Amino acid sequence: MIKPLRPLLLLIYIAVFLAIVLTILPPEIRIYDALTFRSFSLKSLIEKPKDTYVDISAITSQLPTADSLVTQAPATEKIDTQKTVLDTVKALNLPVESQYRLQFPEEDTTVMNNFFSALREASGNQLIRVLHYGDSQIEGDRISSYLRSRLQQRFGGCGVGLVPLLDVVGSRMSIAQYSDPEWQKLFVYSNGYKKADADSYGVMGAVFRYSSTNRVAKNEYFAMKIDTIRDTSQHAIYVPRKDPGILVSYAELKRGYPKDKQAQVLKLLYRNPQAPFQVTIQEGFDSTQHARLDTSSQFHIYSHRLKKDFDKLTLTFRGTPSPDLYAACLDCEKGVAVDNIPFRGSSGVDFTRMNKSLLGAQIKALNVRMIILQFGVNIVPYVQKDYSWYEQSLSRQLKLFKELAPNASILVIGVSDMSHRAGESYVSYPNIEKIRDAQRKAAFKAGCAFWDTYVAMGGQNSMPSWVFAKPALAKHDFIHFTPKGAMIISEMLYKALIREYELYRASVSTVVQ
Fold first, then answer.
1. Quick one: average pLDDT of 258-277?
2. Mapping DSSP to helix (H, G, I), strand (E, B) and coil, where does residue 473 land?
């Protein structure tokens, strides 16, 4: 019979032995060039290393609150003096430090004039659009949703803009979505690209099709996940199906921003070269409208004026074969629309694979006045000495957009900081600044503006500070921002944009006088 004391002593001996080993063992032992043995020390188990991390207290103090989204009366468009605009910039607490500002090729701020001039007209009778493309850093409407709300509260507009017919991730902050399993998504980016489909991809980098309309409606329900409070908690409601077609349904989220649910118009971007199809539109649980869309090889936008504020919208499609659907859209009739278009796994060099005429037609029809490209995190883990290849690839994408959207401004947002474990600490990947520099060079060569996320968030070794902040501003993958962190990034970006816009307004007013 084993005495109870012996196993306890054995555990104590093992613990002491491990403590000695962890104290003596160096954090890294290089076996050869491609293989390094890393271990953690006793100290790293007891306390979190902080001495190498960046102080971001000045940044965290900018964490937006509900008060940030209270509509402010915009400054009058008539500005008499340069002093007036500088006073406005100061009053709005806009960033003046160089690390937070937009950067321009050869200090040529006119590269943003197309967008800024459109902003001045946004309160008139037109809707202007911002396409926000990015990788998984913007997925779920992070960054885009807050930027959208800020621009809409200042310049008018409502709704969440372009939304997919099938959301594979299903975690948007601004809208809930249900799609029947018959929906398929073909996409141009990452490993989804197929050369045979090169002429099919639309403005969201995808085309959506359904596989069949042979459904039976009897006793069938679909589930919508609706959040109950302004956080991530959700519950599902089950709604009876009234139509045997292929269904997609959108619903407001209470954690969304107020203008999200004020959409006035539903739009469908589509092309149906083989056969007509029918769509039934149901607002909430009330009235329905049926539309038959005839055969056409051309790209079209179908518009439906909503009868009330958006809370729930169900679209049911019937017709074989499936049309090519590029997006649904929830907009106002005027103001600003900001579209969240994530390309998961992409480095932002996929646009030149797409059909130029189709993409150009959609950009023109949507009145796109600014295009934002925010990529880079998918390149970081593959460390290389030189990124001139990436600079050239990104330059080709920017030149394509300059050709297809001559009336739009283009803003490149640089890669954010990313960290990996090195001994007891988390440190920035050694290639972050090289990738950032390649992005900035590509932007400047193409005549585009640039915003440096890496520097704005604190520079080298800043990501751990965001991860360990209270509340956390980045996730423990040391790559992606949390919703609160995304709000800070978006707030800094918004202020950088508005600062330049105010200076533009002053310059225009001076010229007019």
1. 94
2. coil
